Fold this protein.
Amino acid sequence: MPIGDHPNGVPFTVLQAWVADANPTNAASFLQATAISNLPPATVYFQSSSNRMYSLVWSANPQTNWAPVAGQSSVPGTGGLMSLTDTSTPGQQRFYRVSVAVP
């Protein structure tokens, strides 16, 4: 199977599934937020892998550049539910996403 194809037709490649430590043969296996607290401080909860590093990034407009949240870059996964938090108190609306990397 080519590395750029996904066996279930979902919009994730096999490589992206591997980086996320997801099962590339299961369309329901992907990194996703399980809960988000939008009250200050903003916190994103998700299931993690102990074999990956996670970062929280933000943007005022999701179609423009994303910036790292201070202190929330390359955080080792716990192998269970974990959270990343933006402790700043911005005066603007923020969009968040979690990125994953192989250590």
